Amino acid sequence: MSELILSLEHVAPADAPRVGGKGAGLAMLQSLSSQTGVDVAPGFVVTADAFRLYLSATGLAARLEALLATRRQGDDRQLPELCRQLQALFDAPLPLPLYSALEEALAALSRRCGVSDPPVAVRSSATAEDLPGASFAGQQESFLNVRGPTQVARAVRGAYASLYSARAMHYREDMGFDHRGVALAAVVQQLVRADTGAAGVVFTVEPESGHDGVVLVTGSVGLGESVVQGRVEPDQFLVHKAALRAGREAVFARRIGRKEQRVVVDAQAGAGVRTEPVPEPLRHQPCLTDAQVRRLASAALVVEEEASRRAGRHEPMDLEWALDGRDQRLYLLQARPETGHRSRTAAGRRWTLETDATPIVTGLAIGSSVATGRVRRLGSAAETALFRQGEVLVAETTDPDWEPVMKHAAAIVTERGGRTSHAAIVARELGVPAVVGAADACTRLPAGQPVTVSCAGGATGRVYAGALPFRVETLETQARPTRTKVLLNLADPDQAFAMAQQPADGVGLLRLEFLMAGALGVHPMALAHPERLDEMQRAAVHAAISARHGDPADGVEWFVDRLAQGVGTIAAAFHPRPVVVRLSDFKTNEYARLAGGTPFEPHEENPMLGWRGASRYHHPGYRDGFRLELTALRRVRERYGLENVELMVPFCRTPDEGRRVLELLAEEGLAGRPGAPLVRVMAELPSNILEADAFAQLFDGFSIGSNDLTQLVLGVDRDSATVAPLFDERSPSVRWCLQRLIERAHAAGREVSICGQAPSDHPELVAWLVSCGIDALSVTPDALWRTREVVAEAEAQRSP
């Protein structure tokens, strides 16, 4: 080919200034295709040299220079007319040497594809884009389903002109780039027919927290513009890196998005694309199989490793992919450094919303901060002149034309889009909280109304009426090391990746019933024995599963899969640190409130002391439901490869009861064999203390449940307001039990931790427990930093 045009196979790393960020990324993907096992569509790059030739041969260089010299920095009123004049210059045709080189390159591409004038994508590749500190995402134009030299030449000129759009010039000025120093290359590739399949984005870090242990794959049916431009809420898949490298199945969480529309090739027009509704069945099906997700994740890790080698530092990556539905072949379309984790301003700070209000709308949270402002609803980028600094931008979706106003927003809310949409990417770079995929936000958020946008509650973003109070805490940058482990009590998968960035030694208490109540809401026995339900109860179970996007026809698999995903998400976030899962400990009245629960639960006058904990697991009335829990936990450890999951048995009254539970765990492959998880027992009954020696012979360790232990030692109903002043975990009798357990457990070679509320509430009790030699404390997230400091001080005083 001409020196003006380079085949992707012939682009070297040193050619990056000539081919731009996108061209360099594609060339890297091409060189790695044999290692990734994922194809890269054939194509070529019309280089930045060709752009400069075009400017000089047409006499545009001087005219551009003259117009750019008139730019008044910060004058947004001048910019639209200036950009119109700049872009109008690119009506000039390509000079003959460049057009001839383009014809030759297209002919070679046709021969390689075996098709005359194959449809191609023409994508802009500026010499200042896809940089570690600035993505330039979507700043220049792309053109899809382009055919023949005439159309391709027109698209190349359109790409050139887009270098001087208002959004592109705004972005360069904000990022400190000189307009005169930026040139543009154009990538021309065979169009991957994702309109018959799917497309999306891969991040080699969890983009909200920057967690490096997972790969996030997002996608939707149709061409990738619907995902990148935020037109749909895409499917999401999380893959655990360590498990993937170990050859495990590794896809531990899935979320099926609202795929309401797709971008497809416009067959009638013969060129370009159009948007159409997604057929109903496809909306509710994952756009990729788990095997395809693993292939993309594996390929992304290869790319990340090579990009890191070239950069001389760890370089998380953001890749675009496509699936050709005709032959089910996967392709990588783009590779660039992931920028959101670098500019995340929430690092080192924690926002807490001080309210229990009901949100107006909810969606996916981008960032972890909170902001307030008045609603400004905009229907298009043409209305951005109406926007005022500090308002909350509410729109159906955004694209790069919106960026001049997005940087002035207190927060952003869009009806469409997912975590890899344009609004999400830009919000992360700006450090602005955003809620994307918030259905009906444009109708439910009145213009001018003060609202509070909160992304501080995990993966779900919420918009509340009014300017609600919130606080911001500055976190320490480094925790003091301690011999005593300090872990977290955590049961919300949405908060797992953010919490895993905190200086915790793991999760000391994951209450399984919290996941069962929130993510499932169905009684396990109602799924194991649906024949025992009447018609009304079956309808309630059906409705509960359908509301959570499950298939009522296979309720057992739905239950096991959803429970495994919840546990797996927390285990993946904290891997390889331990995650101790406490087996379910609902009371009968709580179980009865689950859908389908009434036929399986007796009425008890005092459920707190009734049929709960270990006594349920081996009982015929619950054993089959308990096996569903165990199947989910085994799936997390064996299929997902998350062997950091450990188990804990609650409310175990006698050693004989503990023995029967362990036998049941052994039947399910979770005890009594090499590679089985550690199994602890909760120490929350006086019998656990009095018979500590016997329990120590059965279990791998103890975890103190201070709430129930205090209740049963003092004879105080912890739910009674009348006797509440008598409830005190620091009482001498409770302390005697704690000290006695630590002594007896250590004598038997067993560790002791505490996971009840006491250490979170009482720093002086923490110091005393450390002086007694306790091995670990598990506390609520808000008490983590304080507890670490108390432990460090107590250890320093205890040292000789």
Helical residue percent? Answer: 25-40%
Task: Estimate nothing, just give the exact number of structural domains.
Answer: 5
CATH level 3 topology of the largest domain: Dna Ligase, domain 1
Number of helices: 30
Instruction: Please state the average pLDDT score.
Output: 90
Describe this structure in words.
There is one protein chain. The protein has 800 residues and is of the alpha/beta class. The chain folds into 5 domains: 5-191, Dna Ligase, domain 1, CATH 3.30.1490; 195-337, ATP-grasp fold, B domain (D-amino Acid Aminotransferase, Chain A, domain 1, 2-Layer Sandwich), CATH 3.30.470.20; 353-474, Phosphohistidine domain (Glucose Oxidase, domain 1), CATH 3.50.30.10; 486-494 and 679-800, Phosphoenolpyruvate-binding domains (TIM Barrel, Alpha-Beta Barrel), CATH 3.20.20; 506-677, Alpha-Beta Barrel (TIM Barrel), CATH 3.20.20.60. 38% of the residues lie in helices and 20% in strands. It has 30 helices and 30 strands. An 8-stranded parallel beta barrel has the order 23-24-25-26-27-28-29-30, surrounded by 5 helices. Strands 15-19-18-17-16-20-21 form a 7-stranded mixed β-barrel. Helix 15 (496-500) links the parallel strand 23 and strand 24 (507-511). Helix 5 (96-113) packs across helix 6 and helix 29 (763-772) packs across helix 30 (784-798). The protein is elongated. The model is unreliable at 129-138 and 343-347 (pLDDT under 50).
